[in-house]
Specification:
heterodimer; A: 281 residues; mainly alpha; two-stranded antiparallel sheet; B: alpha/beta; Rossmann fold; 4 domains; six-stranded mixed beta sheet; 23 helices; 20 strands; globular
Chain lengths: 281, 571
């Protein structure tokens, strides 16, 4: 099976601990881990968080790498983009934990760029870049775990049971549907183009050219996607009255306990961050 | 439901897609609206629940539509949906949830029904459209026909007063078609649900079995409305609106039936022919070898092909050890129930999918399709998608046809020559500078097929070549495919249309649950009705009639009305 024929960025039914967990405590755990990773800058603090989300994503949730592929690509591209900022971090004033003399040590001088200043690779810049990469991947793994293991209907049904507004429900509905449909469109278009002799080349210029050719029909489809989602929801009565739910997705005692523990852990770690310089560089 | 003189334009200044249409549908009626592609059937249907003009930007609807004595102009589409359930032609646009059972529950959930009622409705819908075992699957990962079944089930679960379906069975296997139509009839009879179905005329045989009334549309107007018998025996109206007669009706007219006695159903035809055959016995059987497979060199050899899609715990086995051989110049029909693995198999032949077992052999024109580079493989074999919009990338017809030729790096002169040649196949020359989005489904299908034919592959796979097309367009496509085989090319058509398979194919491969159930000539395959029923296939109506008339010596493998007439004349 080709990579393009795998389901990506959408819920896949499986019987794992994360699949069985209620969407709300699951979201709380993942949000806590993601927020902490965003607050910290010291890779020594972010690495254990990344280890936890990788464990949750791989052995616990059993997410295949092919499903994660767009996330990997996005993560790597984001880190590369951040590399641009990293070469301009040279001031010792950023550092509170590590010795600033060591952090500003220049490993490689690049150039003096007008307006922007001196571009150089420093120890601190590498630390900062490493922490940014780790942050991205914590966030991407967390989002992946939630999308892969959460049946959107469960979330919608829980929100409906809490009398959440129809507009908010539609946003959840459209959000969960939009990207899978978009990826399917892209996949079908790329398969069809491959059959007409247009394939993804290893040559980056040709690859970009191919993607541009995918982009045109994709844009046409995306422009009608919102209309399609509105049409499909409307003709099936969405928005006509109170939404009810097929499954009872109530929070169990264990779910509430997990949620409370996640909040307590978050408060404890934020306290350390605020008063003990946890996670600072 | 009362429709009063409605006129519909897609936008101001456009020609009317629906012109001055007025009719009344009584509670509990089963109405079929038929006509060629572009006759205005779908527009009329969309205006019944307010989708036109409320959800179609810039559209203009004049006249009035009243449902259950209420004007729909005053209601939101979501509110009207409680009274009218609309099933769209393309099921992909109607699926909203991530599992089948949630999708089936979506409509009644929007009515605020309690969980236990929702469960009942889901079970009802699952049984109605044969989706047992698929409840936890993502509907978007199902086959086209299964998706259509989910879309229909999703409306049935809401139990609306009126169910309006736009070409609901075009993508279903023959028994699936019968089951859906029977279920609609049952809902109609048992619960008084009013049913309105559009059909482009490919399923005329079903009208008499299910419909109370048939309306024939042509160029936006209702040409004639009446009982199925009145419509199906009016050869003039049927011809004028681009529709064919049911096979048994054509046969009986050719045998001298006239007026109210012209049969329109299999039962009526059996009785009619049996009366005519009274005291007679078949003198001749069909000549052997009238339908034989080509004897050319093998161009497709598949051995022990397996494919498992990811999902669930152990994945989903779509192909379970498929083996067959196709020879050069054959016209092959790949048939089977929805989800039997036909499209998965076809995508292996063009290298889009790879086998999931190591000992599989997929050899296409001497190349290993699992290992060969796509650019090399597509010189030998190519694939036309079921939905033309899946493979259209350019704005204009001519650009679309030359797209693949340019990607292959051909010289400009060669591109121009091949493009002109491909445009002429379906007479698209006059549309070459048209924007594709403005073309109807038939012309878009022609464009998609022509764009692949321009690449001149030796083997052409075409997935449901006639879906969404009317009779004249379908026949035009099949004739062009037949021309290709006569020129030495090999054609593999994936189809649910048994009439066309019987008329054009020389070799039929029947798929069933990821395996090859039958592999032979149309005569060999269609003669085995009982085996075929395992794969939800029923032979063409004329073949079934011959099988019913076995006591008179009729063979079990009649493939056309001409053959049957010939046999009767020689009796």
């Amino acid at each position: 099976m080709g990579i393009l024929d795998q389901p990506m960025l959408e819920y896949v039914y499986k019987d794992t601990l994360m699949h069985r967990m209620h969407p709300v405590p699951k979201m709380m755990i993942l949000v806590v881990l993601t927020l902490l990773a965003q607050f910290y800058f010291d890779p020594r603090f972010i690495l254990p968080i990344l280890a936890v989300v990788i464990i949750l994503a791989k052995p616990v949730s059993k997410i295949p790498n092919t499903w994660l592929l767009p996330m990997y690509i996005f993560g790597i591209m984001s880190v590369l983009e951040r590399g641009y900022n990293a070469v301009f971090i040279s001031s010792g004033g950023y550092y509170r934990v590590y010795p600033s003399e060591w952090m500003v040590t220049t490993l490689m001088y690049i150039a003096n760029i007008p307006v922007l200043g001196e571009a150089k690779v420093t120890v601190g810049g590498l630390f900062w870049l490493a922490s940014m990469g780790l942050k991205y991947f914590v966030g991407l793994f967390s989002v992946s775990i939630f999308l892969y293991t959460t049946d959107p209907s469960d979330l919608m049904q829980y929100l409906a049971s809490k009398k959440v507004s129809k507009n908010a429900l539609f946003i959840v509905f459209a959000g969960f549907n939009f990207f899978p449909i978009l990826l399917r469109y892209a996949r079908t278009i790329m398969n069809a183009q491959q059959l007409r002799g247009v394939g993804l080349s290893k040559n980056p210029v040709k690859a970009v050219n191919t993607l541009a050719q995918v982009f045109h029909p994709l844009v046409i489809r995306v422009t009608v996607l919102a209309d399609i989602l509105t049409l499909s929801a409307s003709i099936r009565g969405f928005g006509s009255g109170q939404y009810s739910y097929l499954r009872d997705v109530k929070l169990s005692l264990a779910d509430k306990l997990i949620g409370a523990l996640a909040i307590a852990f978050f408060i404890f770690m934020v306290f350390g961050l605020a008063f003990l310089n946890w996670g600072a560089l | 439901m009362n429709i009063d003189k409605i006129i519909y334009r897609r936008r101001a200044g456009d020609v009317e897609a629906v012109k001055d249409v007025h009719f009344t549908v009584k509670k509990g009626e089963y109405v079929v609206i038929t006509g060629a592609v572009g006759s205005g059937k779908s527009s009329l249907l969309y205006s019944l629940n307010g989708a036109i003009p409320k959800l179609i930007p810039n559209s203009i609807l004049e006249g009035e539509v009243n449902v259950m004595r209420r004007s729909i102009a005053d209601l939101e589409v979501a509110d009207i949906s409680k009274s009218i359930g609309l099933v769209l032609e393309d099921p992909d646009t109607q699926l909203t949830q991530m599992t089948v059972e949630d999708d089936l529950a979506f409509g009644p959930s929007n009515m605020g029904l309690p969980p236990e009622k929702l469960r009942e409705r889901v079970e009802f819908a699952v049984k109605s459209v044969r989706l047992g075992g698929l409840e936890k699957r993502n509907p978007r990962n199902l086959s086209g026909g299964q998706k259509q079944a989910v879309a229909i089930g999703g409306v049935l679960s809401s139990m609306p007063d009126i169910v309006a379906l736009d070409e609901p069975i075009s993508m279903l296997d023959p028994i699936g078609k019968t089951q859906v139509l029977s279920r609609l009839r049952e809902l109609n009879r048992q619960y008084g649900v009013t049913v309105i179905v559009t059909d482009s005329g490919m399923e005329v045989e079903s009208f008499a079995d299910y419909a109370d009334r048939v309306m024939v549309m042509s160029e936006g107007r209702i040409l004639k409305a009446g009982t199925p018998h009145e419509i199906l025996t009016d050869t003039e109206v049927m011809k004028k609106s681009g529709l064919r007669l049911p096979q048994v009706t054509e046969l009986c007219i050719r045998m001298g039936a006239s007026g109210p006695s012209i049969p329109v159903t299999l039962d009526e035809a059996e009785k009619f022919v049996a009366e005519r055959m009274h005291g007679k016995k078949m003198r001749n059987s069909l000549p052997s070898g009238t339908s034989s497979m080509a004897e050319g060199e093998p161009v497709v050899v598949v051995k022990n092909l397996r494919h498992t899609y990811p999902g669930l715990e152990k994945g989903i086995e779509a192909l379970r050890g498929v083996s067959f051989t196709i020879r050069k110049g054959e016209f092959v029909a790949l048939i089977g129930q929805n989800g039997s693995g036909k499209s998965t198999l076809a995508l292996h032949l063009v290298g889009i999918l790879k086998p999931t077992n190591r000992d599989a052999l997929v050899e296409v024109a001497g190349l290993d399709a699992a290992k060969c580079k796509s650019k090399e493989l597509i010189k030998q074999i190519n694939y036309v998608y079921q939905n033309p919009d899946d493979q259209i990338f350019c704005e204009k017809v001519q650009d679309e046809i030359s797209f693949g030729l340019e990607a292959q790096g051909l010289a400009a002169e060669e591109i121009a020559r091949r493009t002109a040649e491909a445009l002429s196949i379906f007479g698209l020359e006059r549309l070459k500078d048209e924007y594709i989005v403005h073309l109807d489904r038939g012309r878009r299908t022609y464009t998609a097929i022509s764009s692949i034919m321009a690449l001149k592959p030796d083997i052409l796979i075409i997935d449901e070549p006639t879906t969404g097309l009317d009779e004249p367009d379908s026949l035009a496509v099949m004739r062009e495919l037949q021309k290709l085989t006569r020129a030495g090319k090999t054609v593999i058509a994936i189809t649910h249309n048994m009439n066309l398979a019987a008329a054009y194919a020389e070799h039929i491969i029947v798929m069933h649950e990821g395996t090859v159930l039958l592999d032979g000539t149309p005569r060999e395959v269609f003669a085995q009705s009982e085996v075929l029923s395992k794969s939800y296939i029923v032979p063409p109506q004329i073949t079934q009639l011959g099988q019913r008339l076995k006591p008179f010596g009729f063979p079990a493998d009649i493939l056309s009305v001409d053959e049957m007439v010939g046999l009767v004349e020689r009796a």
